[in-house]
Amino acid sequence: MTHLLTRRTFGGLALGLAASHVPAFAAEPSLADAAKQEGRLVWYTTLVVGQIVRPIIQAFEAKYQGIKVDFVPAPWQETSLRIINEGRANQVKGDIVDGGASFPPLKAAGLIEPYLVQSAASYPETYRDPKGLWTANIIQPSTPSINLDQVKKADIPRAYEDLLHPRWKGRMAWPDSPSVSGPPGFIGTILNAMGQDRGMDYLEKLASQNIASVPSNQRVVLDQNIAGQYPLVLMIYNYHAAISMSEGAPIDWLRLSPTMVSFGQMSLLKNAPHPNAAKLFLEYSLSEEGQSVYAAAGYLPAHPNVPSKAKGLRPDDGQYKDFVLSALAYSEHDKEWQAIYKKLFV
Questions:
Q1: At what angle do helices 218-227 and 238-246 cross, to 10 degrees?
Q2: Which of 29, 241, 277, 339 could form a disulfide linkage to 38, CB 3.0–4.6 angstroms apart?
């Protein structure tokens, strides 16, 4: 085990009450027995460790005592590269991987093992691959956020065209992430909603607004919005904003139509050293019981029967029009959309 691989065990089940109102997950006895014989699994994760990785592991290990979960946290680029290198060397160490952007390069390298997660059978088709190559674990609407201390109510944008107002020139920012949840995803949303000609005309006008590209992720950009560095930011996750709003941050997220919705997903790795324990963890994480842990942590669960902690964040209860863009669909256009981003905004 390398020094980057961290094992965590926890005392007590802090989120037990959060899951008590949903049906308890019961795995097939044969799968649970086989998983316990393996005794452990390795999870390569792009998620926030303190917010969800530790809580879901805590819940799983409490339910299936004797099975330990090791996790390797890293950004999606590093995660993908690590798994690809291990695959090429025939030294696969991981069992499961998450992260939407991680999936396309791993699929292209032939490193994903199909597995149909039975506990996710009721998920909308949008959020599960028919062959079992991936299943969504969280929904991620990407929206603008405003600082209410700096933006008058009358000036709050209600449509994408409002971002072109002179008042916003030099006062907007977004993350520079070259992914579905960064500027290229925004560009794809505009082109899909407006069409190629009108969309490009809009993007050229938006580029003249001098949007700052912050070399970091969505959470950091939102924190700069909260701090007042930028009164308006684009392409942050609305559930991040909801968490900060519940803590008193003077911000609000905007429902521009359509709102781009991507999602995180989980996959079983090919030649996983602990395949049964990995399948059991997938089944638990994507069940109503496991998804309630995500909800308690402030994430938007993909399971249709598990409500989010804050109402109105998901398209189904937020009454806003969405444009769902999977990581795989994005990968088919990423070169085109990134080229537009670099030409107009960099």
A1: 40
A2: 277
On average, the pLDDT of the chain sits at 92
Is the pLDDT at 232 greater than 90, yes or no?
A: yes
Model confidence at 21, pLDDT cuts 50, 70, 90, reads: low
Q: Where are the domains of the chain?
A: 6-138+263-301, 140-261+314-345
pLDDT value at residue 9: 31
CATH class of 6-138+263-301: alpha beta
SS3 annotation, the chain: CCCCCEECCCCCCCCHHHHCCCCCCCCCHHHHHHHHHHCEEEEEECCCHHHHHHHHHHHHHHHCCCCEEEEEECCHHHHHHHHHHHHHCCCCCCCEEECCCCHHHHHHCCCEECCCCHHHCCCCHHHECCCCCCEEEEEEEEEEEEECCCCCHHHCCCCHHHHHCHHHCCCEEEECCCCCCCHHHHHHHHHHHHCHHHHHHHHHHHHCCCCEEECCCHHHHHHHHHHCCCCEEEEEEHHHHHHHHHCCCCEEECCCCCEEEEEEEEEEECCCCCHHHHHHHHHHHCCHHHHHHHHHCCCEECCCCCCCCCCCCCHHHHCCCEEECCHHHHHCCHHHHHHHHHHHHC
Residue 1 in this model has a pLDDT that exceeds 80: no
